[in-house]
Design brief:
Order of helices and strands: HHH
Number of strands: 0
Strand content: under 5%
Distance between the termini: 38 Å
Helix content: 55-70%
Radius of gyration: 15 Å
Number of helices: 3
Structural class: mainly alpha
Shape: elongated
Length: 97
Amino acid sequence: MTDLRKEILAEIRRALVVDLEFQGPVELRSELAADLQVDSVGTIVLAVALEDRFRVKLTGTDASAVVSVQDLVNAVEQAVSYERSRDEMQVEAGRPS
């Protein structure tokens, strides 16, 4: 598991415990609704925590595709990669030739 994926998983665990008061194990295979009792409000809380921590927007993520913690980690990782590549392109475009 990459450092980024570890950071994302740690933030999910933190948000579940601190913001949603979840007590119990949180594994990649855990399903958000079935295993972790994350409802629609909890989903928003998680999304906001992840957006704030990683400075990304998850609005383009297909919510129906995010069922497990693994899916959420993948979605955040993809958003972070997108933002980094976009930032790099902007820097390169601003460089004098």
